[in-house]
Prior knowledge:
Layout: E1 2-4, H1 7-19, E2 24-29, H2 35-47, E3 50-55, H3 75-85, E4 89-91, H4 95-98, H5 117-120, H6 124-139, E5 143-147, H7 151-163, E6 169-173, H8 193-198, H9 201-214, H10 220-232, E7 237-246, E8 260-268, E9 271-279
Parallel strand pairs: 1-4, 2-3, 2-5, 3-4, 5-6
Antiparallel strand pairs: 7-8, 8-9
The structure holds pantoate.
Amino acid sequence: MRVVERINDVRSTVKEWKSQGLKVGFVPTMGYLHEGHESLIKKASEENNKVVVSIFVNPIQFGPKEDLASYPRDLKRDSEICERAGANLIFHPENEEMYFNDFSTFVDMNGLTNGLCGKSRPIHFRGVCTVVSKLFNIVAPDRAYFGEKDAQQLAVVKRMVRDLNIDVEIVGCPIVREEDGLAKSSRNTYLSEEERAAATILNKSLMLGKEEIQNGQRNSASIIKIIEDSIKSEKLARIDYVEIVDSSSLEKVEEINKSVLVAIAVFIGKTRLIDNFTYEL
Ligand code: PAF
């Protein structure tokens, strides 16, 4: 496995692979990899001949008060995980390689990005769409792999690829959880011991909501209240949002009569965590 920093090195390697008729899978990440990323890389290596992983903490998807500076980084550990999971190439560019000083072109989206995380992180999806389309142009993969934990991001990337006719298949992969149900996230490392214990409230509360739907409740407001009341029972937790939306349009749903995404964002101390489940009808 090679680690390269230059766009031209990625392009020439992938060109060589493609000239041999090989299929290329791509896993875009911001590094500090965990078992969630590992599952994406493993799936990519099962379904393709070669796998590229990008490790780049993309500055333009962080708001001014967000955790860009403190976002955890550990290339050595990440490289070991990538190698073990079957990656062939890591693309690890510096900011200057990705963004010219006078960089001024962005990919933006309306609608899907207005609610959920887009509401409290107004520039986030513009940054994600821009960097993901740049990475797709650089890597030119056949398939790209994204986790379902970032359900809105997955929907946004699928829409972007459709709208801009980008020739890549987007593959969503299931959430990987700790034994106590907490969804794996690089941001879990910010949690103190007490906060880590409190963070289990996200999945516990979602499971209460799921049970309610399974028992026949179809009114979103009632389900949201059950989830919110449960989160509020944890003193270290502060709700950003609890929403039930159509799983493809991401529009709010009042009565559940089709497949829905139940999504939450909760601050545990200063750390903002997200989680969700999809309920298929
Ligand atoms: O999900 C992430 O880690 C990032 O948003 C992504 C897709 C790598 C773009 O920077």
